[in-house]
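With this grant's support, we have settled on a layout for protein records. One resulting record is reproduced below.
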Amino acid sequence: MPKPGLIFESAINVIQSLTDNRKNPLHIGEVMACWSYLAFVENIITFEEVGLNTTINDGVKELYEDSKKVATNHKMELTKLMRQEGIPLPSSPENKPLSDPAAIPFGVKFTDDELVNTLNMNFVVAADLCAAAASQSVRTDIALMFLKFQVDKLCLGLKAKELMQKEGWLKIPPFYTSPGLPNNEQSN
């Protein structure tokens, strides 16, 4: 099965070829979306560095490495765009140095379950931010950039869900059964 990210990248290329790609100045909403998302991504990279310093689980490490790579790519693309457009960059946190997960006391160390569920919440928030930014963008290149970012985060969310299901970490709300449903239909 093709990867969703590759399918979307092909769709973006087709859409870009159909637009005139005029570069009007960014409107204030597009500027705010770029600035806010870059600030968000820079802080998420710091959290991903903490996660990589905390876990010894290979699946969690792989998810965090993939997530950090995506976030770093988003940061680089946004930083380049913002510099080209003359938009001031937000301040960013310092990078975390590598450390030994075994040296972290258990009382302050995140569990793998906590790490993956928190990272997954990042994917949800990022996808929402990107969807809002894309829908409010007038410039096609900005809308497509945020749609690409959204797909990247959704793909990571699918990977996280698979890991969470495999490890028993997926938090599922209680099932809902309509009060008026006959008993034999409730089990379907």
About this structure: DSSP finds six helices and no strands in the chain. The chain has a mean pLDDT of 89. The chain has one domain: 26-97+109-171.
